[in-house]
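re: ur question from earlier - yeah i can do the single chain one, its not a big deal. heres the input i used so u can compare w yours
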Amino acid sequence: MLFTIAAVLLALWLLGFIVFKVSGALIHLLLVIAVIVGLVQLFRGRRM
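and the output i got, formated as tokens:
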């Protein structure tokens, strides 16, 4: 589930760089938050 969310955010982030210059920063921020949450869960050893 987490990898699916990360993949969708990555696709939207790349789309934001190409098409939507305004929303690119917001999508980038969401992607960074998703990566941080994923790393925290990975280091704690919990699975969703």
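The two ends are 7 Å apart (CA to CA). not sure if urs matches, ping me
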